[in-house]
Design brief:
- With 314 residues, the chain is α+β, with helices and mostly antiparallel strands.
- The chain has 6 helices and 18 strands.
- The protein has 2 domains: 87 residues, Immunoglobulin-like (Sandwich); 188 residues, Rossmann fold, CATH 3.40.50.
- Helices cover 23% and strands 30% of the residues.
- The strands form 5 sheets. It has a 6-stranded mixed β-sheet, with helices on both faces. It has a 4-stranded antiparallel β-sheet with strand order 6-15-3-17. A 4-stranded antiparallel β-sheet has the order 5-4-16-18.
- Strand 7, helix 1 and strand 8 form a beta-alpha-beta unit.
- The protein starts with 9 loop residues before the first strand and ends in a 7-residue tail after the last strand.
């Protein structure tokens, strides 16, 4: 897969997206990609949530728009760098329940699992606008030193910030990359929708992991009641977004949960399968499903890509 040549042109387009639900109809992205091969990174876990690392090409199936597609390239390795774009919510609502302090702790735990000089991380913060706090670096200490500069104020353009951060991850050299969002889950000012953002991130194969920080009184795992917006639990749309991109959504309310979540995120990116298949020559959004022949295994991978016909007419 390291020698895989994937050529693509990504351009933002205005389009109408189809509303979707978790594991339901997938979103249509807002930009288009012309590719010769479609590369898909997949995380595979067993029923206990443990990574499965011993699979071969023959253990996988790829379906495009419901039809089986041959896997033309396959690779699996526990080696190689990971690239994280960490995105922190610094809107005014993060002052509640010490959520900003909890977000800083999530990031410190993440940095503890980084491979110094090999992995890279950048720190972004947002309220109404996205701000680069620390550019990509292989020195995790630079990010740790920047955490005290985060402050909470302003409105929340969560979905817009995720989209912009995902676009910046597209240019990173390693295929093991992700946006990690640390937020209280509220969005009050975005121009983009969940469907917009998940389509964009999925089409460039940048998974989005959302860590929602909240007090135990709001965490249903501790008997609490989730906050709602427009009558809907705040985690519903974020779970949709994460799932469509091949990522995950997790809730952190205690130091123990924070530690487990951080370690799990890094393990996910270190232990990925990389598969590729030929791109369709039919223009438009193509749904992609990656499965294993063992139905007891869970696969997380991007939900599709946007193709246009090749210029030579093939």
């Amino acid at each position: 897969m390291r020698n895989l040549l994937v050529t693509g042109l990504v351009s933002v387009l205005a389009s109408t997206l189809v509303a979707a639900s978790v594991r339901g109809q997938e979103p249509v992205p807002t930009f288009r990609s012309s590719v010769s091969l479609v590369s898909v990174n997949a995380v595979v876990k067993d029923r206990r949530g443990k990574p499965v690392r011993n699979l071969t090409r023959n253990d996988f199936q790829i379906l495009e728009n419901g039809a089986h597609r041959p896997i033309v390239d396959f690779d699996v390795s526990d080696q190689g760098p990971v690239s994280f774009g960490v995105l922190v919510d610094q809107s005014g609502s993060m002052t509640l329940s010490n959520n900003l302090d909890a977000a800083r702790e999530v990031i410190r735990h993440l940095l503890a699992w980084f491979d110094a000089g090999k992995d890279e991380v950048a720190l972004f913060a947002f309220d109404k606008q996205l701000r680069e706090v620390q550019p990509f670096t292989t020195d995790a200490r630079q990010v740790a030193d920047a955490l005290p500069r985060l402050s909470a104020y302003g409105t929340t353009a969560l979905y817009d910030a995720i989209a912009e951060t995902a676009a910046r991850l597209e240019t990173r050299p390693t295929p093991r990359r992700a946006v990690i969002v640390v937020t209280d889950g509220l969005d009050t000012a975005s121009s983009k929708t969940v469907e917009d953002v998940s389509g964009m991130a999925s089409a460039i194969d940048v998974p989005v992991y959302v860590v929602v920080v909240m007090s135990p009184s709001n965490n249903p795992q501790h008997g609490g009641s989730l906050l709602r917006t427009n009558g809907e639990p705040i985690t519903t749309r974020l779970a949709n977004l994460a799932y469509w991109t091949g990522g995950d959504m997790l809730i952190a309310s205690t130091p123990a949960e924070t530690s487990v979540i951080a370690r799990g995120l890094v393990i996910d990116l270190r232990h990925q399968y990389q598969l590729a298949f030929e791109s369709s020559t039919r223009a438009g959004w193509h749904q992609v499903a990656v499965r294993t022949r063992n139905p007891d295994l869970q696969v997380r991978a991007r939900s599709g890509y946007f193709a246009q016909p090749s210029t030579n007419g093939n």
